[in-house]
Amino acid sequence: MGKNAMYNISYGLYIVTSKTFKDNGCISNTAVQVTSSPNRVSVTLNKANLTHDMILESGVLTISILNERATFGLFERFGLKSGRDVDKFDGFTASRRTANGTLYITRGTNAYISGKVCQTIDLGTHTMFIFDVEESEVFNDVPSVTYAYYQANIKPKPKAVGTDATTGQTIWRCTVCGYEYVGEELPDDFECPLCHHPKEDFVKVVK
Ligand SMILES: Cc1cc2nc3c(=O)[nH]c(=O)nc-3n(C[C@H](O)[C@H](O)[C@H](O)COP(=O)(O)O)c2cc1C
């Protein structure tokens, strides 16, 4: 079975935020409106993500909808690091608070949707959170970013296959999230520590 058909599903990209002992958020491509009356949206997160645990604990979340002016820096901050290791909002001023206490992102986004979880579905590796929309706002009409747009225009491109000439090190980059692994070969059971995609989704690159 070829996996490429999965890339032909068109996704948007979002920063999903929640709050418990601190503010945190992560990039996700899984937000979908599931019903309009009541107005409910689902978002599906990997159980390894801190944002996942925070939504489970607090029951509240916000999705900020990324637009085509979003910089790779936003993806690095929210999608390539875990709040378990860093404070993602340290020094980050482009955010405001919703009524439920979670933050929404005001730069590189065009709208936010915020609410309270009404149902969770355990999907094994992931949890699907379905939430009642309680608050939302559109800030601008810059088109929402799609996953394809991110891949083509925002994510830095791998330069060539081979070895880094300056360090002599081989680098493998995750084609899904951009995480880089340094080493000659990827172990067969390797899984991206950030987006959890398998070895098959890595390409060999030069820095
Ligand atoms: C383009 C892109 C799309 C992503 N999509 C998802 C997703 O749909 N679900 C998910 O759980 N993680 C997704 N991730 C990975 C998380 O954003 C990443 O693991 C993040 O570091 C988790 O942060 P946290 O531990 O602070 O929650 C994506 C990352 C990128 C860069």
Quickly name the level 1 CATH class of the largest domain.
Mainly Beta
Structural class: mainly beta
Question: What topology, given as strand order, has the largest sheet?
Answer: 2-1-5-8-9-4-3
> How much helicity do the residues have?
10-25%
Bound molecules: flavin mononucleotide
CATH superfamily membership of the largest domain: Electron Transport, Fmn-binding Protein, Chain A
Low-pLDDT windows of residues: none
Number of strands: 12
Q: What number of domains?
A: 2
Count of discrete alpha- or pi-helical segments spanning 4 or more residues:
3
The termini sit apart by 32 Å
Spatial shape:
globular
Beta-strand content bin: 35-45%
Q: Compute the average pLDDT.
A: 91
Largest sheet: 7 strands, antiparallel
Query: Which fold name corresponds to the CATH topology of the largest domain?
Result: Pnp Oxidase, Chain A
| CATH architecture label name of the largest domain | Roll
Write the element-wise H/E pattern from the N-terminal end onward: EEEEHEHEEEEHEEE
